[in-house]
Amino acid sequence: MKEVILDLYLGPSLSFVFLFWNVGLCTSLKASCPPGWYTSKTSQSCIKLFLSRKSWDDARKACQAQGADLLTNYNREKEKLIYEERYTLLGEACWIGLNDRNHEGSFTWLDDGQKIINLPWYRGEPTGNREDCVIVKNTRILYIFLFDERKCVR
């Protein structure tokens, strides 16, 4: 079983009404889900929410402290897991294990260094402005997730 840790980032407002949340998604292989974790019906993954404000770097450290790492190789199945557990309220954003720290504009996964070419980016993203870490965000339209580049340290 894959273990997914959601690390909620209570960040700055996007507007006067909507709060912006960054959630660090962690994964690790497990035989079964630990007590207090939710099991996905479709992906043999476990999911848990931790409420704390974190940068990408700190979210990754928190994942690693749990024997996991930020979610990599993000796909529709993993997206569905997050959605199933209702952790993706409108406007939430999740840190994932994707960045372009080594070479601006060349996004790679943490686990295997695989370069990512085609992602559903928000309009105007990536900007190339040294915002090296990636979030995936639930848009205002239910179950539509787009990628955005953010600064790794807040």
TrEMBL record:
Gene3D superfamilies the record matches: Mannose-Binding Protein A, subunit A
Span of domain C-type lectin: 42-154
Source organism, top-level taxon: Eukaryota
PANTHER family for this protein: MANNOSE, PHOSPHOLIPASE, LECTIN RECEPTOR RELATED
Designated name of the protein: C-type lectin domain-containing protein
Annotated source species: Elysia crispata
